[in-house]
C-alpha cells in the first residue's frame, strides 16, 4: 500500500522561496509518474508539475515555468518541489500524487492519480 506524505509548507513573503517534499513508503516510485497539484479555496485542484521518476524528466504548466523545479533523491523515494519567486496567487494546499504506470507523458488529470498525500499549506503573504 503506497503512502505519500507532503511536508515543507508554510508562510512566505512574496518573492520568497520554499521547498516541498513528498515522501513515499510502502512501494516503489521507479515506474511511476509523480504529479504536484494545488488547490486554492473555492477552486478545483490544479495540476502544476510532474516527473517521470524513471528518467527524471519533468514538466510544468506555464504559470510556474522557470519558478518551480522538481527533483528526486537517489533512492527515488522522495520527490521535491523547489518553489521560488512566489506570489500570493501561489497560495494553496499543495498535494503530491502518484500514477503507477508508464506513460509517454504525464497526465494533468486528477482522476488519473490513485495515490495522494494529505497536502501541505503554502501561504504567500506580506
Task: From the structure above, extract its key features.
seven-stranded mixed β-sheet; mainly beta; four-stranded antiparallel β-sheet; 0% helix; 126 residues
Give your account of this protein's structure:
This protein is mostly beta strands and 126 residues long. Helix content is 0%, strand content 48%. The chain has strands at residues 3-7, 10-12, 18-25, 33-39, 46-52, 57-60, 68-72, 78-83, 92-99, 115-116, 120-124. The strands form 2 sheets. Strands 2, 4, 5, 6, 9, 10 and 11 form a 7-stranded mixed beta sheet that branches. A 4-stranded antiparallel beta sheet has the order 1-3-8-7, with no helix packed on it. The mean pLDDT is 94.
Structural class: mainly beta
The ordered string of helix (H) and strand (E) elements is EEEEEEEEEEE
Mean pLDDT: 94
Q: State the distance separating the first and last CA atoms.
A: 40 Å
What is the number of E strands?
11
Radius of gyration (CA) equals 13 Å
Q: Determine the strand fraction and express it as a percent band.
A: over 45%
Sum up the overall morphology in one term. Answer: globular
Helix proportion: under 10%
Total helical segments: 0
| Quaternary structure annotation | single chain
The low-confidence parts are none
Please describe the biggest sheet, giving its number of strands, its sense, and whether it closes into a barrel.
7 strands, mixed
Amino acid at each position: 500500500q503506497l503512502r505519500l506524505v507532503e511536508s515543507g509548507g508554510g508562510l512566505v513573503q512574496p518573492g520568497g522561496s520554499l521547498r516541498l517534499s513528498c515522501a513515499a513508503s510502502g512501494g516503489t516510485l521507479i515506474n511511476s509518474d509523480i504529479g504536484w497539484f494545488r488547490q486554492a479555496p473555492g477552486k478545483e485542484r490544479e495540476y502544476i508539475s510532474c516527473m517521470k521518476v524513471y528518467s527524471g524528466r519533468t514538466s510544468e504548466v506555464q504559470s510556474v515555468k522557470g519558478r518551480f523545479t522538481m527533483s528526486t533523491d537517489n533512492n527515488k523515494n522522495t520527490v521535491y518541489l523547489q518553489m521560488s519567486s512566489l506570489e500570493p496567487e501561489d497560495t494553496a494546499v499543495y498535494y503530491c500524487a502518484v500514477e503507477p504506470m508508464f506513460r509517454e507523458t504525464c497526465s494533468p488529470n486528477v482522476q488519473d492519480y490513485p495515490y495522494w498525500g494529505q497536502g501541505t499549506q503554502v501561504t504567500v503573504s506580506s
